[in-house]
Amino acid sequence: MTVYDQHSRHLRDLRISVTDRCNFRCRYCMPAEIFDQDYAFLPKDHMLTAEEISRLARIFVSLGVRKLRITGGEPLLRKDLPEIITRLASLDVEDISLTTNGSLLARNADKLKEAGLHRITVSLDALDDDTFMYMNGGRGRVLPVLEGIDAAAAAGLSVKVNMVVQKGVNDSAVLPMVEYFRNKGHILRMVEYMDVGNSNGWNREHVVSTKELLQQIGERWPLEPVEPNYIGEVATRYRFLDGGGEVGFISSVTQAFCSSCTRARLSADGTLYTCLFASEGHPLRHLLRSGNSDEEMEGSISSIWANRHDRYSLERETGQNSSSTKVEMSHIGG
Ligand code: SAM
Ligand code: SF4
Ligand code: SF4
């Protein structure tokens, strides 16, 4: 079955947040002053179990989802993550990936691969501890993340690295990061700093645009554009002319890609969000727990998707959307 929304976008990808907790406190995502010891994280009985996650994922697959991405919070904090992946791997999908801060990856990479994970994206914002620790609230050093990346590659997982670039914070880390990952053969993707949630104090002046990054990187290592792997690919791809591999750019702020956005997001408590910048979600947990059949769940989800009209990033540009309260990134995952 294929379901279309109000702008003729079909439902193709599902991002599943398996926890709202994290061992880091990245300033652009979970600033420590807000996500402190008094912060009300989800109680355990509100979190979906591995079985509930896989049942919902199966229902989404029957509605056309072909790609699953596990995220959080930090998904590796969840003890039953291998079980979740094993269950998802039994579904008829093209791709199962995971986004992680990489801090706990080195000792888990083999287990994730064995469970059936295909690909992994590791977030890393700098190669030097001073910058990295400033950005993650002093919670993690660079070396364990690099070891995690090596372990994931050794386990046979395809690895990408995402770097959020903030002006005046880690823009000086861009060229060292490109140099390091070119030589490793992993695709580094530069992510424009986004106004997700309400707590990171986002300001457009802190965004380093893809245009600026392309110029900076291209001056050092000349680049040429590469065709997208598929229509609607989020990252724009470039190849180093010297054969040093590829680099990608995720330009959510300066080149919004809402018109091809086929992504639904499920939070750890089973709320469905149809946009990263949504103010409100659609609670599915009580439907799951009150005896609804798969067919009834399919009906509810397809009507939510059919009513979807989100285009936040496009509307940000035209000033049409200055949404008041937005869901936090750590709640729905990136
Ligand atoms: N904890 C995992 C991690 O950091 O990879 C998974 C969850 S995290 C919310 C997913 C992605 O969102 C990370 O790559 C992170 O860098 C990115 N992210 C978080 N806040 C962001 C922001 N304000 N702008 C752009 N990317 C952001
Ligand atoms: Fe945690 Fe990832 Fe958010 Fe950083 S970006 S605080 S690692 S969830
Ligand atoms: Fe999709 Fe919303 Fe992002 Fe637009 S702003 S690309 S609709 S998640």
Explain the overall architecture.
29% of the residues lie in helices and 17% in strands. The chain is of the alpha/beta class. The chain has a domain at 13-161 and 261-332: TIM Barrel. The protein is globular and about 60 Å long. The protein starts with 12 loop residues before the first strand and ends with a helix. The model has no long low-confidence stretch (mean pLDDT 94). Bound molecules: S-adenosylmethionine and iron/sulfur cluster (2 copies). One iron/sulfur cluster binds next to loops. The site of one iron/sulfur cluster has 11 residues, from helix 10.
Q: What structural class do helix, strand and pairing data support?
A: alpha/beta
The CATH H-level homologous superfamily of one domain = Aldolase class I
Separate helix tally: 11
First-to-last CA distance: 26 Å
What is the CATH fold-level name of one domain?
A: TIM Barrel
Helical percentage: 25-40%
Count of β-strands = 12
Structural key phrases:
334 residues; alpha/beta; TIM Barrel; 12-stranded mixed β-sheet; binds S-adenosylmethionine; binds iron/sulfur cluster; S-adenosyl-L-methionine; molybdenum cofactor biosynthesis; iron-sulfur
